[in-house]
Specification:
- This protein folds into 3 domains: 131 residues, no CATH class; 305 residues, 3-Layer(bba) Sandwich (FAD/NAD(P)-binding domain), CATH 3.50.50; 125 residues, FAD/NAD(P)-binding domain (3-Layer(bba) Sandwich).
- The protein contains 20 helices and 21 strands.
- The strands form 6 sheets. Strands 2, 3, 4, 5, 6, 18 and 19 form a 7-stranded mixed β-sheet that branches. Strands 8-17-9-10-13 form a 5-stranded parallel β-sheet, covered by helices on one side. Strands 14-15-16 form a 3-stranded antiparallel β-sheet, with no helix packed on it.
- A hairpin with a 4-residue loop joins strand 4 and strand 5.
Length: 618
């Protein structure tokens, strides 16, 4: 069987004591809880701004400040921004300017160039516009450099480089009622007056830094994995970090980034200390090159079909009886196993939703037990192996896969420092890191601590002020919860559009969500232009109705969220109570493709129901 064949259920242990595991999961969660929740991470400004704002890849070229009127400003040049720009161009809106802090397009794939970086889900689903740009990834989990180059390919194909404004950060956005435009001030002294603004900052644009006491005292070298310093380490994204041969290195973080980093750091550093609060689940990778015969056999529409198939088998959906799993990896395993278990029951049609969910929960425990036994099989030291075992439900943390991560801990120059009991590293000193009361002297500290995903939106947008009509602050407007129509427009903020996890459809394949939003936003802007409207925004009634729809469809997942070990999926263990927004944004829980159908039907009607269009004279 190849990676391109359909597949069946995996073999998981039958001797699983679920009651005992529930208790174990609870214990592991409780010992990691911190009362400050997401506030344990530093805001990257003032003394810590360099962790986010310094571009190690592209020198900033001096230029005169921009003072001009434009049609559309797209804030962010990652995949969401590229798709927004592409769909605007396809809709006939040509005056599009992407404003991006980085020196090029790519977003997370521009900033993240650390050793070993790869897409960690199926690249044939994740990388957008493969058919349209006639490109096939070289392997199932594409390297970061290949994805970055495809981002640049999108920019070139749709002419987005022509209006791009790189190495520029928007600092304030204010609606000017007199001229009916957004005034954008930037760190380059610009005064850009945009008729429309599309917010595409994404969820992985702002590095997250743990607020470890003494972080400013360390005298060695320090950087974040999203701003990798090859001048210090040597090598490149394929490895070969030869300058670390005489260096003791500390890596803080064992999430998706840390899992990809550890094999390279362990191979090349004199000694590597890996500081882990919560282990990731790490399955086999089996990253095979693309089969040319399979690629040649693809028929028009293949990518959309594959994306829909992946979503159906993903953790966001349920049981699938009418289609085979095309992706066949660790993301879809739980769906395959649950489906097979239900299909083997005496009368599948008679099962209640509660019985189906109970079966799914049992299969969840079995999958996670399989992954824990994989750790025991691969890691020689029993104490280290036990610390590396993930004791939580599937999707409590982002699942990972890597063939070299776990065996790296068998190397004599690699030490795992488990900091679960102390809820993290104690402090930094001039010479190194203190954890569990022990000081580890190191030459370099690398933070693989992820991105600001569940912090306040004012931090994630990294814009000092967003003020709509009558000076209304977006941050105040959304303080107690999002208020939108379709998750993309908000009353009081004319001609402003949002992408991301905000009251819309949520897909296991994030780029599919961005493409869905980009197509819809481009349609609305193009229609506003055609209809000679000066402003477009939702009516209060439509916004309230959408909020009610979101609430009516909501499913209480708090019990699952709060059972998980702390992380960005559950607001660092604090949950998402009143006034606290999930990174999923109180999403449209009827289903991603149900939402897609809803948007298409709305566009097909052609009456822009729920939006108010006004011209300058109204």
């Amino acid at each position: 069987m190849t990676m391109f064949d359909t597949c069946g259920p995996t073999q998981t242990p039958d001797d699983v004591d679920i009651d005992a595991l529930r208790e174990k999961y609870s214990q592991e969660r409780n010992k990691r809880l911190r009362p400050e929740g997401s506030e344990q991470y530093l805001e990257l400004k003032d003394d810590f701004a360099e962790f986010a704002e310094v571009d190690p890849h592209t020198p900033v070229t001096p230029r005169a400040p921009i003072n001009e009127d434009i049609e559309v400003a797209v804030l962010g040049g990652g995949i969401a921004g590229l798709l927004a720009g592409a769909y605007l161009k396809k809709a006939g809106v040509d005056d599009v300017h992407v404003i991006e802090m980085a020196g090029d397009f790519g977003g997370v794939w521009y900033w993240n160039r650390f050793p070993g970086i790869q897409c960690d889900n199926d690249a044939y689903c994740y990388i957008p516009m493969l058919e349209e740009l006639d490109f096939i990834p070289s392997k199932k989990y594409a390297d970061g450099a290949e994805i970055f180059e495809h981002c640049r390919r999108i920019g070139k194909h749709f002419g987005l480089y022509d209006g791009a404004i790189f190495s520029t950060q928007v600092t304030t956005m204010r609606w000017d009622e007199e001229i009916k435009r957004w005034r954008l001030a930037t760190n380059r002294g610009d005064d850009i007056r945009a008729r429309f603004v599309v917010m595409t900052q994404g969820s992985y644009n702002r590095p997250k830094l743990p607020g470890i006491p003494g972080i400013a005292d360390f005298k060695g070298h320090v950087f974040h994995s999203a701003r990798w310093d090859y001048d210090y380490t040597g090598g490149d994204a394929t490895g070969g970090l030869h300058k670390l041969a005489d260096k003791n290195v500390a890596l803080v973080g064992t999430g998706a980034t840390g899992v990809q980093l550890v094999p390279h750091l362990g191979r090349d550093a004199k000694h590597l200390y890996v500081f882990q609060r919560t282990p990731s689940s790490v399955d086999m990778r089996g990253n095979e090159p693309t089969d040319p015969q399979w690629a040649a056999s693809l028929q028009p529409g293949w990518q959309e079909e594959r994306k829909r198939n992946f979503h159906r088998w993903s953790p966001f959906e349920g049981v699938v009886f009418d289609a085979a799993d095309q992706v066949c990896d660790f993301w879809t395993e739980l769906g395959r196993n649950t489906t097979a278990r239900i299909a083997a029951s005496p009368d599948p049609a008679s099962l209640t939703i509660e019985q189906v969910m109970a079966i799914r929960e049992e299969e969840d425990y079995k999958v996670m037990e399989r992954l824990r036994r994989r750790v025991a099989d691969l890691v020689e030291d029993p104490e280290t192996a036990e610390a590396l075992k993930p004791y939580y439900r599937f999707m409590c943390k982002r699942p990972c896969s890597n063939d070299e991560y776990l065996p790296t801990f068998n190397r004599p120059n690699v030490t795992l420092v488990d900091v679960a009991e102390s809820k993290g590293v104690d402090r930094l000193t001039e010479m190194g890191i203190v954890a569990n009361g022990v000081e580890y002297e190191v030459d370099c500290v690398i933070f693989a601590s992820g991105f600001e995903i569940s912090t306040e939106i004012s931090r994630r947008y990294a814009i000092d002020a967003i003020e709509g009509r009558d000076g209304l602050s977006l941050f105040d407007h959304w303080r107690d919860g999002y208020k939108t129509l379709h998750g993309m427009t908000s009353r009081g903020f004319p001609n402003q559009f949002h992408t991301g996890f905000i009251q819309g459809g949520v897909s296991a394949n994030t780029t599919a969500m961005f493409e869905q939003q980009a197509e819809h936003i481009a349609y609305v802007i193009a229609e506003a232009v055609k209809r000679k409207a000066t402003t477009v925004e939702p009516s209060r009634e439509a916004q309230d109705a959408w909020l009610n729809t979101i609430r009516e469809l909501a499913i209480d997942t708090s019990a699952f969220d709060l059972s998980c070990t702390p992380g960005y999926y559950n607001n660092e263990g604090s949950g998402f109570g009143e006034g606290v927004r999930s990174f999923l944004g109180d999403y449209f829980m009827a289903g991603f493709y149900v939402f897609d159908d809803l948007l298409r039907q709305w566009r097909d009607k052609g009456d822009l129901d729920g939006l108010e269009l006004k011209n300058m004279n109204d």
